[in-house]
Amino acid sequence: MILLPSKKSHPLQPLARSLRLDILEMINHAGFGHIGGSFSSIDILISLYNSGVFNFDKDHFILSAGHICPALYAVLAYEGKFPREELLTYAQFASRLQGHSNLDTPGVEYASGSLGQGLSFACGLALGDKTHHTLCLTTDGEHNEGQIWEAVAFANKYHQGNLINIVDCNGYQLGGSTKEMMPLDELASKYLHFGWTVTTVDGHNFYALEKALRTAKSSTIYPSCIIAKTTLGKGVSFMENNFEYHDVKKLPEDIYLAAKNELQKY
Amino acid sequence: MNSKNIDNKSIRQAFADTLFELAVKNPQLYVVDIGLRPSLYLDKFAARFKSRFIEAGIAESDAAAIAAGLAAGGKTVFLTSFACFSPSLNWGVIRQSICYNQKNVKIIGSHAGLMSGDLGATHQMLEDVALMRSLPNMEVFAPLDAVEMTRILPVIAHSPHPAYIRLPRVSTPIVYPQKLSFTIGKSQILKPGKDISVLGYGPILSELFVDDFKKYSLEIINCSSLKPLDSETILKSVKKTGRCLVIEDHQKNGGLGDAVASLILSSGLKCKFIHLGVNDSFGQSALNYFDLYHYYGLSPLAILQALKSLLNKK
User: Fold this and answer.
1) Chain B: nearest CA to A196, how far in angstroms?
2) Is B212 on the interface with A (CB under 8 A)?
3) Which 3 state secondary structure label does DSSP give B68?
4) Mind telling me how many Å the CA of B110 is from chain A's nearest CA?
């Protein structure tokens, strides 16, 4: 086993802190948002857009789990796709930043909200553009949907080496733990048996994420699955692994301040 | 009453032949099939255009979103299946991945209506028009016969919008006047008349062309463009006749009759109105779909009674 440097030393670590704070401000200001999954997936998105492995002016990114769009919005604002101040319009009337991802947002390629469709869409996109890579972000809870497995079979049939599915495995969904709701044990093994290459990584370690992305990019005929083990609500101790923070309404002042305080030290 | 003097032709075959011709000219035309290639007569297409014929297997939801993803790359994509599977099983995917994402996918729903005969209720899709006309960004079409199919398909293939095209299973009479052309949002007056406006779509309209109806001055309007609907032509005719009969091989709920009734009421026109369709029930098997049309009140006899009733109504 090759030991990677301490994840805290990675140059993207300050961004992981500041974009988490952006997500908190966005959701607190709106009084609405899927905060747990946004915090579990933000490091994956930061790595995708900032590790230099892919170029989303040419490559494609499909967010299949549209409810964690606050994380995507934070990354796209950092990318300069729209002004950072616009983040505070999230989910408001007439905003380009809808409560679930939408094509009006600069940088968004697929509008989603109903789970399980994005991977199929990514298959179609990858089939039509074989000279670039199509990356898709799904969640473990989303794998309850049968359509995911239809797409997994399709990608194998068409040897979609330019397709990469990253699964944010935070272990929770709206109604409880994924084990309790619908167990999908041995997810890696399931993908392997469907003919995919699979890497399992710490979804909060930028070294590990970049390495997995590079490995996936080098695949020629096998679609790649990156199983990112993450923590729901990562960064705020009382939100971590607490499915009551899957989505929140207006945060009480003390909760907001406590979360902000913790994130400033992240 | 019968249509034995009129040639029967397959709308499905006309679809497959016309699509093949379009694909020869347009290298960006793709098919995403849902496991029913032979039934849609797409063997020739699949053999000639191997890389443009995508077989998604029996997976309607997956196929609809794959089609949307392909369309996102600038392709014109035909999603082919039976109406009872697509757009029935995958309606939510069509709603999000095709309509909300505004992707250029043409959904071909074959075997629609009671005309599916022996296959029985599961396959006799009677709710597809209602499902599809309710969706923003979706256009809805139903060719009258094989000739109109050849006119509709090139027009729709060039349009950038998502569309649903409803096809019947059986071969049906040719009644489309050769000189007519097809325009999205326009209906055609197949036969002008002054007493009753008869509106419908698909091969069921051919029932109106038997001798028994010649003594009535019917204005027969083909609403093959179900959405957008040609409100101008419809209201002009209804204003003239003051009587309207809508007939459809579909549930009354959510069908053309609902759309036309709403149109007429909103316009302020006074009009006697009868809507013939399947009344909130499922179909059943029959070796000849005429038996089903008789049972569900869509036969020429039912039409005759409706016409008499409209003429007698005060």
Assistant:
1) 17
2) no
3) helix
4) 22
**Chain A residue closest in CA terms to B94:** A117
Are A66 and A96 within 8 A, CB to CB? no
Q: What is the CB neighbour count within 10 angstroms for residue A79?
A: 13
Alpha helices in B194-287 (DSSP H): 231-241, 256-267
Distance from CA of A250 to the nearest CA of B (A): 28
Please tell me if residue B73 touches chain A, with a CB cutoff of 8 Å: yes
Helical segments of A166-234, H only: 178-181, 187-193, 206-217
Q: What is the pLDDT of residues B161-220, one digit of tens each?
A: 999 999 999 999 999 988 889 999 999 999 999 999 999 999 999 999 988 899 999 999
Name the maximum alpha-carbon separation found in chain B: 62
Looking at the whole model, is its pTM more than 0.90? yes
In angstroms, the separation between the Cα of residue A111 and the nearest Cα of chain B is 6
CB atoms within 10 A of CB A103: 14
Residues of A in contact with B97 (CB under 8 A): 110, 117, 120-121
Question: How big is the CA angle at B171 (ends B168 and B174), to the nearest 5 degrees?
Answer: 100
Cβ atoms of A140 and A187 closer than 8 Å: yes
Task: Say how many Å lie between the first and final Cα of chain A, rounded.
Answer: 28
Given B73, B96, B100, which is nearest A125 (Cβ)?
A: B73
Q: What is the DSSP code string of B109-139?
A: EESBSGGGGGG-TTT-B-SHHHHHHTSTT-E
Q: What ipTM was predicted for this assembly? A: 0.95
Residue among A124, A129, A158 whose CB faces B65 most closely: A124
The encoded tokens of residue B231 equal: 């409100």
Among left, alpha and beta (phi > 0; psi -120 to 50; other), residue B117 is left
For chains A and B, what is the number of CB pairs under 8 angstroms? Answer: 92
pLDDT tens digits for range A174-195:
999 999 999 988 999 999 999 9
